[in-house]
Amino acid sequence: MNQGQPTAANAMVELRGVSKNFGSVEALKAVDLAVAKGQFFSLLGPSGSGKTTLLNLISGTFKPTAGRVFIDGKDATDLHASKRGLGMVFQNYALMPHMTIFENIAFPLKVRKVPSAEIKKRVEEVLELVRLPDVGARRPKELSGGQQQRISFARCIVYRPSLILMDEPLGALDKKLRKEMQLEISRLHRELNITMVYVTHDQEEALTMSDQIVVMSNGQIEQIGTAEELYFHPANPYTADFIGDSNLVYGRVKAVNGSVQVTLDDGSIVMARAEEGVSIGDAVQVLVRPESVIVQAADKPSDLPGLTGKLVETMVFGAVVKHFINLPDGRLFEATEINRRGLERIALGAQVRVSWRVEDGLVLRDRL
Ligand SMILES: Nc1ncnc2c1ncn2[C@@H]1O[C@H](COP(=O)(O)OP(=O)(O)O)[C@@H](O)[C@H]1O
Ligand SMILES: [Mg+2]
């Protein structure tokens, strides 16, 4: 599933067969991936899945146990972190408390022996860019958390790295500020045309900001794709469950002919769209997103095959209404519809039918 993946020629970062062990812990297992120049590339996965380890292998903080790391077409595996020419932004800002904001941002330029007139010009430029033009004389503690994070971006972009690595940079901010900063980072990415590798455990953050997303679990890549690909074509049940809300039912393939028919344990039959490599007898899961589910009173006639269950809860969330249906096997099935005036309400406890259009059912198999 490497759609949209770059070729070696335009890759800013490429990992080939990269593994990392910490003693007996296999934090990364033979990972291959490539980040195209200019991409906003996110590493998404639960805590402990290996995101920070992967980032640290790109930055040069760690050396891989096996495999090679390429940056801008050159083998950087043995290159010291300080020679890789990249910028890093962390959750804890890492600003120096005794220095003013101006001095903090100027610091990487001083280290690089940039003349002071040039330093002044560039610091003012980046303060403008992060929309805090007047805070140069202040100390970090005189700024809010969100402002400090902007300054840590400013300090990172002031020496114009072509690659920026960020490890959960918004993790310490509250939800509203996080949304604001997400827009801000997206804007900076667009304006500066920098390649960004961004670590997050927040699927919404990854889905809204990224050109490409890597879904990780247990030190391995589950899938690489755009937000759209991950949502509509998850490669396996893990990705389907991790990205968005999902209904998954288990069964065996009964027939394949333009669509796929699957028999569930209780004998009921559901449909999914045709998928390559699916054969009669295969044990599969069928994924249906809640917004694709149609809920009707069980006695209403319908042309679509579906499942019957008991409506146990209906919740109104302003713009949408969510229904929860208990299936005979004890699983909860979720259906979401737009909240319209005059929407027909079904009584709680009633028997209902859940169905979906054939093209909204997707056959999934566990990764082999
Ligand atoms: N320095 C280290 N020493 C030992 N184990 C580590 C070290 N860093 C990470 N690990 C282990 O490697 C795995 C991946 O960790 P990490 O990359 O930090 O995950 P994430 O950033 O996705 O939460 C975890 O099991 C973690 O405990
Ligand atoms: Mg981490």
How would you describe this structure in keywords?
368 residues; alpha+beta; Rossmann fold; OB fold (Dihydrolipoamide Acetyltransferase, E2P); six-stranded mixed β-sheet; five-stranded antiparallel β-sheet; binds magnesium ion
- Cα distance, first to last residue? 14 Å
Strand ordering within the main sheet:
6-7-8-3-9-10
CATH topology-level fold name of the largest domain: Rossmann fold
Radius of gyration: 25 Å
Chain-wise SSE layout:
Elements: E1 11-22, E2 25-36, E3 40-44, H1 51-59, E4 66-71, E5 74-75, E6 87-90, H2 101-111, H3 116-129, H4 145-157, E7 163-167, H5 175-192, E8 195-200, H6 203-209, E9 212-217, E10 220-225, H7 227-232, H8 237-242, E11 247-256, E12 259-264, E13 269-273, E14 283-288, E15 294-297, E16 306-317, E17 320-326, E18 332-338, E19 351-355, E20 362-364
Parallel strand pairs: 3-8, 3-9, 6-7, 7-8
Antiparallel strand pairs: 1-2, 1-4, 4-5, 9-10, 11-12, 11-14, 12-13, 14-20, 15-19, 16-17, 16-19, 17-18
Helix pairs in contact: 2-3, 2-4, 3-4
Bound molecules: adenosine-5'-diphosphate (ADP) and magnesium ion (MG).
Adenosine-5'-diphosphate binds at residues 22, 25, 27, 45, 47-53.
